[in-house]
Amino acid sequence: MPVETGTRGRLSRHAMAYVLAGGRGSRLMELTDRRAKPAVYFGGKTRIIDFALSNALNSGIRRIGVATQYKAHSLIRHLSRGWTFLRPERNESFDILPASQRVSETMWYLGTADAVYQNIDIIEAYDVEYIVLLAGDHIYKMDYELMLQQHVDQRADVTVGCLEVAREQATGFGVMHVDDEDRIIDFVEKPKNPPAMPGKPESSLASMGIYVFNTKFLLDELRRDAADPGSSHDFGKDIIPHIVKNGKAVAHHFSRSCVRSEAESGPYWRDVGTVDAYWEANIDLTAVVPDLDLYDRDWPIWTYSELAPPAKFVHDEDGRRGQAVSSLVSGGCIISGASLRRTLLFTGVRVNSYSHIEGAVILPYADVGRGARLSRVIVDAAVQIPEGLVVGEDPELDARRFRRTEKGVCLITQPMIDRLRG
């Protein structure tokens, strides 16, 4: 368990983290055929949701709820295995909150706000003063205690975590228009012409999907919204715009609370919601000094970690040498007379002799057959790559056989391999 130091945890002791983890993640294509986006593997050992949960834990929050919905089995299994060490007898709690038609026998979660509203009785039972509402599908390190402190200091009705982005990139976000004191005076969802930041005409403030509320205020707003037949029951579309117009909404800049080690040059936040973005964020970790430091012992990323033997590299002869350069290799992997470069292997991957792998993200327990040549690929979990398969050298052939992106990354799943053998 993390140890609190200094004043950390002063406000977080009175807060609950509520993680919205029900997203479909459809832009990740076949990677989310069997799992929700927050359950997608990332970084060699973790799942995407582990970042939001670790931020909460490291910030001193000891009451956590996770709302799940679509294709939730692998996510619930991961949470049950890796996150149930929080103990009620220590005034801690961890609840998994699947959409279970608790309000109506015909209603699943209708939107992000409804995913909280349907669990109001559970939230009230926690008797916490603040709710930190989180999206479970982004990669970043952040101290929520600092955001809680701003929320209290400015006596806000809602404090919205915001990220500075180039205006031309802001069209895919909810964008804040703020005054000189960071009070939000307008909130626009995915605008064609995003408002600029004060004094920064080329930048916009985009919502991170992170909100801090006083609990009573939030529950009152959720009840009001639930009674509105014209609402879509969504925070970005309904709740936040209503508070901007009728209350006090304040922007919290991510740069003020992002957690950085000495090795990290700037604030790091990634939405790995497309196949290209997912591949790039994972491969970036193979750099000598990556933008995201997973080795930061002061802010660990907690997860369920399988018991696995050390990685093993065998054979040492020309053309058949087990070796890896600029790569991350997890426990239980066997590199048997194969070569890796700029590659990330998750737990239990086997790469067989005479294979050459470059720029690959290979998920747990995949097996790469002899003589395969793979470059710029993502291989799904437990896929059996046939002997001699070549991917990444013939774009037209790749596009016929696999999911190939505009940037030339190929996603390979077992059904795609089975069709080749068909």
From TrEMBL:
Q: Which GO terms describe its biological process?
A: glycogen biosynthetic process
Involved pathway(s): Glycan biosynthesis; glycogen biosynthesis
Q: Where is this site: Could play a key role in the communication between the regulatory and the substrate sites?
A: Q69, W108
- The leader peptide range reads none
Keyword check for Magnesium: no
The positions annotated for binding alpha-D-glucose 1-phosphate are Y109, G174, E189, K190, S207
In this protein, which residues make up the domain named Nucleotidyl transferase?
18-286
What superkingdom does the record give?
Bacteria
Where the record annotates domain Glucose-1-phosphate adenylyltransferase/Bifunctional protein GlmU-like C-terminal hexapeptide, the positions are: 309-412
**PROSITE patterns on file:** ADP_GLC_PYROPHOSPH_1 (PS00808), ADP_GLC_PYROPHOSPH_2 (PS00809), ADP_GLC_PYROPHOSPH_3 (PS00810)
Keywords, sorted A to Z = ATP-binding, Carbohydrate metabolism, Glycogen biosynthesis, Glycogen metabolism, Nucleotide-binding, Nucleotidyltransferase, Transferase
> What InterPro entries does the entry give?
ADP-Glc_PPase, ADP_Glu_pyroP_CS, GlgC_bac, GlmU/GlgC-like_hexapep, NTP_transferase_dom, Nucleotide-diphossugar_trans, Trimer_LpxA-like_sf
Which EC number(s) are documented for this chain? 2.7.7.27
Which Gene Ontology molecular function entries are recorded, alphabetically? ATP binding; glucose-1-phosphate adenylyltransferase activity
Does Glycosyltransferase appear among the keywords? no
What is this enzyme's catalytic activity, as reactions?
A: alpha-D-glucose 1-phosphate + ATP + H(+) = ADP-alpha-D-glucose + diphosphate
Q: Which family does it belong to?
A: Belongs to the bacterial/plant glucose-1-phosphate adenylyltransferase family.
State the protein's purpose. Involved in the biosynthesis of ADP-glucose, a building block required for the elongation reactions to produce glycogen. Catalyzes the reaction between ATP and alpha-D-glucose 1-phosphate (G1P) to produce pyrophosphate and ADP-Glc.
Subunit (UniProt): Homotetramer.
Protein name in UniProt: Glucose-1-phosphate adenylyltransferase
